[in-house]
Design goal:
single chain, alpha+beta, Trna Endonuclease, Chain: A, domain 1, 35% strand
Length: 134
């Protein structure tokens, strides 16, 4: 995927999150936002899968640990959803881990439990762990 395509889809992600947040508001369960966001992606023709299994592989061996990505867009962009009072370092480690384990370039940590959705979106680029707040 080219940079321009990542940027285009990134803008769509933020817009979809804004739409879901406007419709549903803050304070609901994470699963509510996940299903609403999946419907929003479907309505916009964006390829999205939820609860995608990510195996843990060490030295070529698949270990008996599996992780789940909340949403994978266009088989390239990882979304980790939260509905929490504050984003913790553990949440950040989670999105970084998913990017590394899947070798994906771009991920978003999205917290829906905020008054303004733009304050709940953080963008992560694999191998560049400075948080870019949108």
């Amino acid at each position: 995927m080219e940079r321009e395509e990542y940027e285009r889809i990134g803008k769509e992600i933020v817009d979809c999150c804004l739409s879901v947040h406007r419709e549903m508001g803050p304070g609901l369960l994470e699963s509510v936002y996940e299903m609403s966001l999946m419907k929003e992606f479907e309505l916009r023709g964006i390829n999205a899968e939820c609860q995608v299994a990510v195996p843990l592989v060490y030295k070529g061996y698949e270990l008996s640990k599996e992780f789940r990505i909340d949403i994978l867009l266009e088989n390239e962009i990882v979304l980790e959803l939260k509905a929490t009072e504050t984003v913790s370092p553990t949440h950040i480690a989670q999105i970084i881990s998913y990017l590394k384990l899947t070798d994906k370039r771009l991920g978003y940590l999205i917290n829906f439990n905020v008054p303004l959705m733009k304050n709940g979106v953080q963008r992560f680029v694999n191998n560049y762990y400075k948080t870019i707040v949108i």
